[in-house]
Write a structure and sequence with these properties.
CATH topology of the largest domain: Immunoglobulin-like
CATH architecture of the largest domain: Sandwich
Distance between the termini: 92 Å
Number of helices: 0
Shape: elongated
CATH class of the largest domain: Mainly Beta
Strand content: over 45%
Largest sheet: 6 strands, mixed
């Protein structure tokens, strides 16, 4: 587990020391211990660490127990002074802190924690308190991971949570006031996530647990609480998100905002393309998963990353090159990786219809006759592009007559489709003269009105004569 470096840089902060005594010979002595956290998160002494009083020409090494004793010499005119200690050792990050010293005093410095270079660490006790009051507060200590990934994802599946227990003055509880801290999951996706340990006695005022993810993605709320003299103290719930696993081929798909654009008529039409990426448990993959896009025709943005629902969105634009006249489709391909090494690719594809200019309207019959009887006349008509594909959505098809009554497909708003056939390219209507139509001629017009960036305007007129 990787934990952010809480390199307790108290270099700008003067620490309040826990113990100060006078020396017999007037020397100023600093005493303390240097630790790091081992793999079990226990404070472990660091021998051979260099403790240097900057600008004081005084330094020493820690012994086998991590303890040091450093003598510093104040100027004759100085009775007290702020001294900056710098603690370092090969393989660890350097730490520093400021100490207020007095002439002739032996001062116990708060415990110092170093963090391994490139290693894991967390907050360790940095204040060795001689005494405290009863526990009054529990709070999360330091930084922690805000998200994990589901089990078997090959990604981070557990996170360490450190809690500080303090009295009503903010002092870490001592051994005489140690408490048992209980940990529980208040809310979670229910995929088998768990905490270990579920209880822990405070050590130096701290207690920890580890959240382990399950097989479902979702938000987790963690509670830490303790009973103190018949009263319960607790934290506000700690919130951590569990993200989905790696992309799965069966849960990888592609969709267009519009499946039909007039790409053969207008260059520069923008159509949104969305890749939907899930893991093998049908959860969205982790936000930030990269998806790469390409197209055989037109232009498409090259990549995007997923959001919290596993969606990666790019823009397709109509432009050269165009598909051949017998095809009219541009195929967009999306690619992502199903492993952490980026070597196993999964692919999905979908097509955008680049429809052409509106074809002349075909209608049958093109002429008709009527008399004083109410005999209806039936018409079939076709509206498509010049390659017989549907025209784009929001195109309006109107049928109007100068006399008589119309029924059927006389006011059509085209849907977004790539399929030709009834209701998309093939339509019909019926005209009826009524019982006593005196007009010697009737004109019926069919008009196609396109939207902006549509396929183009068309109209046709059918003339009927009275017998």
């Amino acid at each position: 587990m990787r934990f952010l470096k809480y390199v307790f840089i108290f270099s700008l902060l003067t620490l309040i020391l826990s113990c100060t005594t006078r020396t017999e010979n007037g020397e100023t002595v600093l005493e303390g211990k240097v630790y790091y956290l081992d793999k079990n998160y226990l404070a472990t002494p660091i021998p051979g660490a260099l403790v240097n009083a900057k600008n004081m020409f005084s330094q020493t090494l820690t012994d086998a127990t991590g303890a040091f004793r450093l003598i510093v010499n104040l100027e004759a005119s100085e009775d007290q002074k702020e001294v900056q200690l710098e603690i370092s050792k090969v393989g660890f990050n350097t730490n520093s802190l400021n100490v207020q010293v007095k002439r002739g005093a032996t001062i116990t410095v708060s415990d110092i924690t170093l963090i391994k270079v490139g290693g894991d660490s967390t907050v360790a006790p940095t204040d060795t308190i001689s005494s405290s009051g009863p526990a009054s507060h529990i709070e999360i200590s330091g930084k922690h991971d805000t998200h994990l990934y589901i089990q078997s994802s090959g990604l981070k599946e557990a996170t360490f949570l450190n809690f500080a227990v303090t009295d009503d003055k903010g002092v870490l509880v001592d051994e005489d006031h140690k408490v048992t801290v209980h940990f529980s999951i208040l809310n979670g996706p229910g995929g088998g996530e768990y905490l270990y340990p579920e209880t822990m006695d405070t050590q130096g005022g701290y207690a920890y647990t580890v959240l382990n993810s399950g097989i479902l993605a979702g938000a987790v709320q963690i509670d830490a609480w303790a009973d103190v003299d018949g009263k319960t103290i607790r934290t506000m719930p700690v919130r951590i998100a569990i993200y989905g696993g790696l992309p799965d081929a069966d849960h990888f798909s592609l969709a267009m905002e519009k499946v039909n654009i007039a790409g053969r008529v207008h260059f520069g039409i923008i159509d949104k393309v969305t890749a939907f990426v899930g893991d093998k448990f049908s959860n969205p993959v982790a936000p930030g998963t990269a998806v790469y896009f390409s197209s055989d025709y037109g232009i498409v943005e090259g990549s995007a990353v997923t959001d919290i629902m596993g969606r990666a969105v790019v823009r397709f634009m109509s432009a050269d090159p165009l598909p051949p006249t017998d095809h009219s489709f541009a195929t967009v391909t999306a690619v992502t990786y199903s492993d952490t090494l980026g070597s196993k690719t999964i692919t999905t594809q979908n097509d955008i219809l680049l429809s052409a200019i509106t074809k002349s309207i075909f209608v049958s019959p093109t002429t008709f006759t009527y008399n004083n009887t109410n005999t209806p006349v039936h018409f079939n008509y076709t509206v498509s592009d010049i390659y017989d594909y549907p025209i784009v959505s929001s195109s309006i098809i109107n049928v109007e007559a100068t006399d008589g009554n119309l029924f059927g497909d006389i006011n059509v708003r085209q849907v977004d489709t790539q399929a030709s056939g009834p209701g998309t390219t093939d339509f019909s209507f019926t005209w009826a003269p009524g019982d006593s139509l005196d007009a010697p001629l009737v004109n019926i017009s069919i008009t196609v009105s396109p939207p902006e960036d549509g396929n183009g305007y068309r109209s046709v007129t059918i003339t009927g004569t009275k017998q």
